[in-house]
Design a protein that fits this description.
alpha/beta, two-stranded antiparallel sheet, 10 strands, Lipoprotein
Length: 214
Amino acid sequence: MYKKILTLILCAFFVLTGCSSKTAVKSQASTYAVLTKKKKGELLKMKKHYDLIVVRSKGLTTEDMKVLRKKSKQIYFYMSLKKPHHKAETLKADGIFISKIDDADALDALIKEANQNKLKVIVNNAYDYRETVYKNSKMVAGVNQTSMMTKKQGKKYVKQDTEVSTRLKKYLSTCQEKGIATYLVEYTKNTDWRAAINAYCKKHHITYYNPTIK
């Protein structure tokens, strides 16, 4: 009984807080997975199907891409801004997932380069570089945010600091207003938190992925 009440309280708290967009961005994927820790063999054997997946390009071949195409409508290659290398054009991926951002000018240049090469872009954890994202909104297909609702504390995940959560919610809301799809990755294994996060994301048109959910 207590657990059910806790779940309802968490759901109510998350749903009622934060900015709400009226409709989802048209280009937003309904199902999404960041699979950068999966080995090639695991990727090729996975049974789930998604609208969009993010994977590492290392070791992938043209034949592998054909297999992955049967498992996902869109395939993005992970790319660290610190090591800007990917095989998106060679292997005909749909886009790149830019992570480990530490330079606004480099991010701006990479977004423009990807657009010229007809590659879509998802920008990861870019709150500190949000102005670069906003000004390139027509060239940024989506943004991904991790740990907006929960944070790691020791060996478990607990509620994210209110100040941090509030500003990240506002960031995603602004992205949506500019036509940018929004994605969220959380790592909590707690079923109450999962239910609350899922309820919030449904209300606010954010596609949610948790790698701990099998």
